[in-house]
Specification:
The structure is a homodimer. The first copy, chain A, has 12 helices and 20 strands. Chain A is of the alpha/beta class. Chain A has an 8-stranded mixed β-sheet with strand order 3-6-2-1-9-11-12-10, with helices on both faces. In chain A, strands 13-18-20-19 form a 4-stranded antiparallel β-sheet, with helices on both faces. The radius of gyration of chain A is 23 Å and the shape is globular. Chain A starts with a strand and ends in a 14-residue tail after the last helix. The interface between A and B is large, with 36 and 36 residues.
Amino acid sequence: MKLIVQKFGGSSVANPERIKRAARRIGRYKKEGYSPVVVVSALGDTTDELLKLAGRITKKPSRRELDMLLSTGEQISTALLAMALHERGFDAISFTGAQVGIVTDSAYTRARILNVSPHRILEELKNGKIVIVAGFQGVNVRQEITTLGRGGSDLTAVALAKALQAGSCEIYTDVEGIFTTDPRIAKDARKLKRLSYEEMLELASSGAQVMQARSIEVAGKFGIPVHVRSSFSNGEGTWIVKEDKRMEEVWIRGVSLNKDEAKLTLGGVPNRPGMAAVIFRVLADHGINVDMIIQNIGRTRTDVSFTVSKSDCDAAMNALKGAARRIGFTHISQDADIAKVSVVGVGMRSHAGVAAAMFEALGKNRINIEMISTSEIKISCVVKKKDGEKAVRILHEEFQLGKKQPVRERVK
Amino acid sequence: MKLIVQKFGGSSVANPERIKRAARRIGRYKKEGYSPVVVVSALGDTTDELLKLAGRITKKPSRRELDMLLSTGEQISTALLAMALHERGFDAISFTGAQVGIVTDSAYTRARILNVSPHRILEELKNGKIVIVAGFQGVNVRQEITTLGRGGSDLTAVALAKALQAGSCEIYTDVEGIFTTDPRIAKDARKLKRLSYEEMLELASSGAQVMQARSIEVAGKFGIPVHVRSSFSNGEGTWIVKEDKRMEEVWIRGVSLNKDEAKLTLGGVPNRPGMAAVIFRVLADHGINVDMIIQNIGRTRTDVSFTVSKSDCDAAMNALKGAARRIGFTHISQDADIAKVSVVGVGMRSHAGVAAAMFEALGKNRINIEMISTSEIKISCVVKKKDGEKAVRILHEEFQLGKKQPVRERVK
């Protein structure tokens, strides 16, 4: 049995016409001898509409009831897609997460998958059926419905690919694949044929919203090849695979831009051991994730700056003001007018000088760097928001990403 | 524990405002010491919208997938109602049919309940929670979602009342209760305080669409008192209870009108034994329910007329034309221009002359009777459609249903 998992996102099943188009594609695979297991998201903006309904009833909906509510969106898509496949003469059957044994913990609205029982799916595949599974959802051990958080259908797809030992996992979306950068920003952006899980992960967390970060992690952990491709064309998309030697030959795989963060600065913090711990414990206790952190040490007092998601900015300000006495800062300020530009590539590990090249290119073009952070395969700089897109174009050019053979060894 | 089952129909939860209103009422019961178990239908026209979506994909949706699709409507209502109760400070928890063990057979779109496991509900009630259950749905033994047919939420409510041994079952709807006849037709129609299961059943099947017929049957079988009342006012509605002696003192409980049937006539059918069996077997094999039947026997040939639901009329015509040779009729005709007027009352059993009084009243007013059928507690006449409402008014008057003390013994 040539088992393949295919995930269709919300834009790929936004209306009956698109559902029919997805059915056509799935049917083609079935005819070619594949056994498709299809994961679907909710139709277009169903989730937002359901949230709006809930919002007319309460400002603080219970997480359990939210999951009960939102999980219906995916259930609707599965049934409609099954009907569309029937209409084309294929035998298909739809399932909720509960019905195929996607068991999660009880962290409603952001549950983690604990186990997937492949029995029922395998049974139906053996009967020649195309199996359709509602993405984004599962049940806890008490059979209470849970959801997996934004982009959770990607995770459903990868988890099923793992449990069913599928050859690969296709993610159908509204873009052609992963690009060296956003083609709307740099016209010569190129579609990448292959990149590693790590690179994809860094790109995802730096603003390229094609796939949910956790699902990439899981795919990487189990070595499941993921094919990100368009549901509107037949061309090959981008394969996300295990890193290999050849990948390291290229310095930089891509440039990403994130305009969803804000910078907070605490000024005049007493320069005592453990002070940073106090600050970030306060934020953690309020459930606020911090991205970049810099600290300028003075003699007795110091400045601490960090970035958070814009939607958390007010909460972070309030949390810190509430702990003002404990921390002892003299002033606090926020700046939402920033952009984070990142260059990503596994080649960075074996090639020195990427950071220097990046900073030089930005400096030469009079773009001021406000913060810097680095990982093994990524370098991020915070710049003024108005400079964000320009910085992307400069770096895309600097690392010759628009060319078929981008820079391999920089001439010093 | 003063357990009470309360069912809210689609119009009672049509939008967030109405859901809040339902929550207010449920909360009041909770404060008075009741333990409410609430059954909800889908919001207003959700079901029709989902059917429209399916219709854009296929003309003949699979019944299994239809149930998968339609069951989401009730799931949405349960979650929203739970949120509304939380908002008012009550502890509430929602469940799908599957989650509370409503097990049915596998007859998708019209499944029958086989068993209800009350454990989970009782556990949550003991924890002080208000329990909300999605109506209209269940699962078969393989955990595949089934639905119970039009009006199935009534059945869910009655089945839960039985399984939980609730004191009574409240059906909230958009009318004040059951009336002697439709108040839009006869201005002096009175709300009935009590009527028997049998009377309600005959009224339901003769056009009074307040409650699903099967749910009345089940309530009667287990002697569960049902209170039909308005979700828009606090007044008492109508109690449907076991028949008692006092009820028999009243001749007629109510008059109903059904304009949803059509009459078919087969002319010149050979007058041979078994011919009627052939005709109605053909219809049964096509899943068409027949209501009234009359046969006028001639010497060698005979005419057979019967009524079916208007929506089945074309299918019935085609089925019979397909069997024309076997049946051997000389012509076939249909008439959708009819109305069925029925008088219902358990008192009929012990009082002779109801039929005569009914026919006389219609005759005196020059209303022609095309067909007649009788049961122990009901007499129905088919008349021209244009005469339907007039006939209702005449009979409502004849049997003095507008008066507080309707006719008990007719003066001959």
